[in-house]
Amino acid sequence: MVSKKLTIVNAQGFHMRPATTFAAAAGKYASSVTIKHNEKDIDAKSLMNIIAACIKCGNEIELVCDGPDENEALAETSALIESGFGE
Amino acid sequence: MLKGIAASEGIGIGNVMIIEEFSLKYTPKTVTDSQAELKRYKDAVEKFCEHTSKQADSLRKDVGKKQAEILEGHIQMIKDPYMGAEIEKLIQSGQCAEASLEQICNMFIDMFSAVDDDVTKQRAADVKDIKNAILGILLGVNEVKISDAPKNTVIVAKEVTPSMTAGINKENVVGIITETGSQTSHSAILARALEIPAVLSVENALSSLRANDAVIVDGSKGEIIISPSDEVIKEYSEKRKAFLKEKRELENYRGKATVSADGKEYELFCNIGNPKDAVKAMNADGEGVGLFRTEFLFMDRDSTPSEDEQFEAYKQAAIVLKGKELIIRTLDIGGDKEIPYLGLEKEENPFMGFRAIRYCLKNRDLFKSQIRAILRASAFGDVRIMFPLITAVEELREGKKLVEEAKAELRNENIDFDENIKVGVMTETAASGVIAHLLAKEADFFSIGTNDLTGYTMAADRGNSFVAYLYSPFQPSVLMMIKRIIECGANEGIPVGMCGEAAANPMMIPLLISFGLTEFSVSAPSVLKVRKNISKWTKSEADKIAEKVMSFATEQEIIEYLKTVI
């Protein structure tokens, strides 16, 4: 299991477009991808669950990946957040 | 006339096309062959995705990538592994596809609607849109053909869903009217992207309007005129032309520096009231924020916001601004802004009473928590602190002492902040104008709040119709104050801005240029207009006008003269 703490930097937080991109990226991997936010575990492969979590700009989250390709999964998903989803 | 929310500016003149809602009623039933039912459901989803993806492609061509992504999001939503699995589970348990889809979609609609956040609430509308589209396919109901709209069509609907908006041909559709929706709904965002005037949330629009009615949509004012006379049509055609012309002209100023005709650069900032406004300020091409009012954090609640809560809000704005200047004004309560839990007593004369910096300096815990929150946010951008309602040098000194105390605490706690954070004064009282030369020695910047400065200088309440005639920033006394504050700031080499409404007034701009103002802070929609107005003046032309203006004895003469030269 690998994990990383991150701050959401794009202005609109996890709105539709970033959430869609993120769920699609997480979905490519065999490993589980979980977002820890406000003491809740969110399955990052589910767009609907990400939206319901209402993650905003400035929020601190932890990404946790667990499985055979956990390092690749963490690298790609954390890069997305750090880049602010290219906004 | 009908009224609604002005959601997309501009004027549209055309004929009504009513978009009916189809009945999506069905009778829930139990299914014996759940495998066949599952296939029926999956086929419908497949058809939906195919159709939506086609719409997204055409939207990408006509409107833009970001808008197309909203529709692509619909595909992602219905393909969501969690949501899909739940629906399929229900079908396999013997429930029909329609009821299974509806049950799970409604669960998410309720979940998203319950969140206290506009963006998440909008997702409920997306799920509803998906649900209705797939129900339509399952029930074999034909969908609306908006794409067939003839020239000069004004679309009238209960709600314009994202999938409907995607079918809109912007050559033919000149206006949009709906019974529901808000400034931030997809319909509004798409209407703005398509540059189609739109008025949303118009009560009884569907019963008040009939197909082919002639109608004017004023998306700037949120008004709809039914069956206008030829005269009114002519009037609005002129308005429409003028609107389009000004819009084209103003767009030329987007992305440019704010420069006078003789090449002097100015800062052009925005006034904001919450972190979301910071996004608007950036979209409006603001170069920073000259006034971030912090009252929103304290109002409409039962207790004081925590330091962390304040920090999150200030930090969010700082991140949005990406290193551009952000002037945060400390709490300005009292006067007309009531906050019950702060226990402020009713006063005979609240505007001259216990408010703003006076209240904060007597409630140090509350004040320090705000200062600490602002300091912590200063690690994330170019953040500055501004004290409101300063009338004496001691107030500035005491405020600065608290800033130093807060800095020492944060240092001990190993928390990052900007050691050199600038602390300025909002010069908005007559007293601060008179002692501006003293304040300028100890403040890092001034920002002139013309709304209060005018009221306090003239001792006139603009809300009182008997004395409102006195309330004008063009009164010789107010102009003298403004000039003095700017000159005192310049003498000490500190920047002087203006964050009151007067900063955007075309008649005030040459005077401010002549006096030596360095920063204009205006509402987001005024940014391009003010940039254009500043670009018209050279210093010597502005000086000539200012000299003449300052030679007049009355406001009336000043206004009359300015009208002849602006």
Describe this structure in words.
Helices cover 37% and strands 26% of the residues of chain A. Chain A has 3 helices and 4 strands; from the N terminus they run E-H-E-E-H-E-H. Chain A has a 4-stranded antiparallel β-sheet, with helices on one face. Chain A is globular. The termini of chain A are far apart. The model of chain A has no long low-confidence stretch (mean pLDDT 89). Chain B has 566 residues and is α/β, with parallel strands linked by helices. Chain B has 3 domains: 29-139, Orthogonal Bundle (Enzyme I, Chain A, domain 2); 146-251, Glucose Oxidase, domain 1, CATH 3.50.30; 258-565, Phosphoenolpyruvate-binding domains (TIM Barrel). In chain B, the strands form 2 sheets. In chain B, strands 1-8-7-3-4-5-6-2 form an 8-stranded mixed β-sheet. In chain B, strands 10-11-12-13-14-15-16-17 form an 8-stranded parallel barrel, surrounded by 7 helices. The radius of gyration of chain B is 28 Å and the shape is globular. The chains are: A alpha+beta (87), B alpha/beta (566). Chains A and B meet through helix 1 and helix 2 of A and helix 2, helix 3, helix 4, helix 5 and helix 10 of B.
Write the layout of secondary structure elements.
The complex is a heterodimer of chains A (87) and B (566).
Chain A (H helix, E strand, L loop, with lengths): L1 E6 L8 H12 L4 E6 L2 E4 L3 H7 L6 E7 L3 H13 L5
Antiparallel strand pairs in A: 1-4, 2-3, 2-4
Chain B lengths: L1 E2 L1 E4 L2 E9 L14 H29 L2 H14 L2 H12 L4 H18 L3 H22 L13 E5 L4 H5 L6 E6 L7 H9 L3 E3 L4 H4 L5 E5 L4 E4 L3 H22 L6 E2 L5 E8 L2 H9 L5 E5 L13 H15 L3 E5 L26 H7 L1 H14 L4 E6 L5 H20 L10 E5 L2 H5 L1 H7 L3 E3 L1 H9 L17 H16 L4 E3 L10 H7 L3 E4 L4 H9 L3 H13 L3 H11 L1
Parallel strand pairs in B: 3-4, 4-5, 5-6, 10-11, 10-17, 11-12, 12-13, 13-14, 14-15, 15-16, 16-17
Antiparallel strand pairs in B: 1-8, 2-6, 3-7, 7-8, 9-10
Helix pairs in contact in B: 1-2, 1-5, 3-4, 4-5, 10-11, 11-13, 13-14, 16-18, 17-18, 19-21
